[in-house]
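Input chain follows. Return structure tokens only.
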Amino acid sequence: MLVNLLSTKSDPNSKRDYKKLRQIMLEEDEWDVIKDLIPVLKPFAEATDYLGSNKYCTYSMIVPTLLVIIKQLTPLTENGEKNASEISFKNQEHVFDDQVSIEDDDDEKPNPTAVRKLKIKNPVNTQNLVDQIKLTLYAAMKHYWNNLITPTYLLPSLFDLRIKELSFVTVLQRSDAEELLSDLYDQEKQSFSDSDSDAIQVNSKEKRISKKYDSIFESFKKPITSASNEIIEYLALKDINFESDSLVWWFEHEKRFPILSNLAKKYLAVYSCSTSSERLFSDAGNVLTAKRTQMNSKLFKKIMFLKRNSIHLESIHP
């Protein structure tokens, strides 16, 4: 539409813009490539949106998400796998550098420090271009995440009851992760028993000091007893719905799995990316503007606290 509009103008500027626009307009086969790239790049967009959140558990989903994307990009032939292994990413400083200049721009001088110089007037060779992009993405994923399936990396997923079956790895790899969990459980159990014995002594002293009245219905209440072997009982449980919140589940079953819940808090509370802290900086910049430089630091902290915790307001004051 813009090209047709400029073609009707007679002034020099419009003629010049019309000529430049005609040169850089995408051809039909280039538009077809863009359409074909949508399903290739969509998993990356979905992973970015999901892992960038801070309202639910994301750390346990890093490994399975990356493995799913790698599986979708995996070449179907041995020759494709060989071609992917030949792609070099040794110069990591420049592989995904965003310093790009356009050589064909007549108005501006190209950036001399740019790593890549694009000639946007030249038509793109679209033959097998989508396959080449998929192959390069696959090679990049294998290069930057070449050792994903280790017990240490799988441990957070093992704490996530939605995916604790680890269906995305082999039985042996799952067994190694469970063995690591068992070792950590034994260490945590030792420290947990030491602190628990101290707490029992304090509670017994308090009971002797103040005698609390026991209700006549107290005998009907069934106490929540912790599992004798938390790992065996936990691994025997069925996976919960993927839409469920793993952190809420551990909070509700903390008394049943006191030691495992302690470990789960350490792993599942970690964010998978720095998006949350970057959002915090953005919120702080929006509150503390140039016209609010005299704001009291205590007031600023309170405003930021309310901003970040407003989602919990309805649960406190429905």
